[in-house]
């Protein structure tokens, strides 16, 4: 009997927290248990001193997705490597199908993908890579490009520099 036949509620997509480096094993265990899982993988190049290797690594480290009805959540949380559902105040929060479909379409496009922190215009950020690493400022959109804006308060002026989308992280 499939998972859908056992439940009374329609299945939704949920994010699952998993142990570090256990994403692939947990996804395989869920799949073998007859559950619909989705582990987006991004191809990346890793350089070692003696070779270069292409690896498929989780796009969202520490997470995977499962489409399930919450009538039987114990089947998921008892899976080796799974720490629990992602949600609010202990209640799993479903993920809209459109968001899962968007990630699948981006994977199908076979382009280079990166997981990024959610950034908003006006948010304080810090540059994490490159010659500007460690520089802090405010994120601004100028002509559809991300810029780091640094304020010179004494002069009542600001300076903006164009950034790569993944070059900054939120700054607390």
Quick one: CATH superfamily of the largest domain?
A: NusG, N-terminal domain
In the predicted model, the low-confidence regions spanning at least 5 consecutive residues are 1-7
CATH architecture of the largest domain: 2-Layer Sandwich
The total number of structural domains is 2
Rg (C-alpha, Å): 20 Å
Q: What would you note in describing this structure?
A:
This protein is α+β, with helices and mostly antiparallel strands. It has two domains: about 110 residues, NusG, N-terminal domain (Alpha-Beta Plaits, 2-Layer Sandwich); about 45 residues. The protein contains four helices and 14 strands. The strands form four sheets. Strands 1, 2, 5, 6 and 9 form a five-stranded antiparallel beta sheet that branches. Strands 13-12-11-10-14 form a five-stranded antiparallel beta sheet, with no helix packed on it. The longest helix is centred in the middle third of the chain and has 12 residues. The N terminus is likely disordered.
């Amino acid at each position: 009997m499939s998972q859908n036949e056992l439940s009374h509620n329609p299945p939704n997509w949920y994010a699952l927290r998993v142990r570090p480096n256990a994403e692939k094993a947990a996804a395989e265990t869920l799949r073998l248990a007859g559950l619909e899982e989705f582990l987006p993988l991004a191809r990346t190049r890793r350089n070692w001193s003696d070779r270069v290797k292409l690896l498929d690594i989780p796009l969202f480290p520490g997470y995977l997705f499962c489409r399930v009805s919450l009538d039987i959540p114990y089947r998921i949380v008892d899976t080796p490597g799974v720490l629990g559902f992602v949600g609010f105040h202990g209640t799993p929060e479903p993920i809209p199908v459109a968001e899962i479909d968007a990630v699948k379409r981006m994977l199908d496009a076979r382009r280079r993908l990166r997981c990024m922190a959610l950034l908003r215009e006006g948010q304080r950020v810090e540059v994490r890579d490159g010659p500007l690493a460690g520089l802090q400022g405010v994120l601004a959109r100028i002509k559809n490009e991300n810029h780091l804006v640094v304020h010179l308060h004494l002069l009542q002026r600001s300076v903006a520099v164009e950034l790569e989308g993944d070059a900054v992280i939120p700054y607390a």
